[in-house]
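Data card: per-record layout.
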Amino acid sequence: QVQLVESGGGLVQAGGSLKLSCAASGRPFNTYYMNWFRQAPGKEREFVAASSGSGARTYYSDSVKGRFSISRDNAKSTVYLQMNSLKPEDTAVYYCAADSVLTYRPSGMDYWGKGTLVTVSS
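The structure for this 122-residue chain is written out next.
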């Protein structure tokens, strides 16, 4: 079992930045791909970013590429999502998820956090 707890969400103006954190406990952290998903009101949960176990490889959706950056500190069992140049359309609940393989799909995740709300005002 892996427990995931997100933090760092909040209200920010368009163009601003936020950094989300996801702390993990349980099974060895570096054996998992760590992912960030988001879900806006009335929309499906969508993939945002992923990091390989070592952090050497990262993956992004087209909508956030160049603005968001995923990183991880395996010594702290924590994954981060640095979000820059935020837009109102980035408003969503952001979820951290752990996956033993890279799938990009919500249905493929092994473990989920409860999410943290990010609101971007125009």
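Known properties of this structure: The CA atoms of residues 56 and 65 lie 17 Å apart. The mean pLDDT is 96.

See the next section for split statistics.
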